[in-house]
Task: structure prediction
Amino acid sequence: MAENELSVFLRARREAITPEEAGLPSGPRRRTPGLRRSELATLAGISVEYLTRLEQGRDRNPSPQVLGALADALRLNTDDRLYLRFAAKSAAGDSFMSCPGAHPPEEEPRPTLRAILDGLEPAPALLHNRLGDILARTPAFERLAGPLGLLDEPRPNLLRFVFTHPRAREVHPEWDEVAERRLHAIRNGQPPNDPHLSGLLDELSVSAGAAFTAKLACAPVPPPHSGVEVLRHPEAGLLRLSYDTLTSGDQSLLVYQPADPASALALERLSGFGALRAVDRQAV
Result:
């Protein structure tokens, strides 16, 4: 079977990364640059035989989990991870949404929910679809989330941000808890054959690697609809925010309020927020 973009890319990146860059000792003098196949296979947790088939173009259907493990082992950056996924899809002859199944996620806010959202200012609030795409937000949420990097993309996504944005772990001091909640919120109640959900999960398996696949392997549980989220804001400092989620069909409202007086004061100091009453979850 002839070479393809995937096989060429994997071999080129294996030969381009040094053992030291991959976290291995350099060892004795090496006859070839880069990693040996056995070294990359060990780092990625796959067999040498399987890696050989991939590099020779004899296997064109690696799972997203395998691609994510290879991307981690090769220390690929975000752009290279996206290309790796594209190359794998191209090698397999798949289109990204070729499978029939559930209806596409809604991409426009429903008028009634949009009207409710507009009435929540000055509270930071957003409206998202079942895959976590942010469809609309209050100006207060823009002022809160903009400096965090959450709104950097044309169509921001809550799950994609927490797993792939370089600042996500800094923004979320309790990253593990937030990441699990975001993932459970996306998976909860979704049909297992939904190609739109599968496409997002496959994408993140490659782009985030083990940080995502380890949590994906856990059984989904219903996420809490309310609680307290901690944010480290570059302008307002450490914030404790009470949140509530209200879901209607494909779309959900996520509303934040300060969880203590210090957070209320910090939010008020962010230009345009106005006064917000602290909501003490323990007192509810």
User: Anything to note?
Assistant: The chain has two domains: 5-92, 111-283.
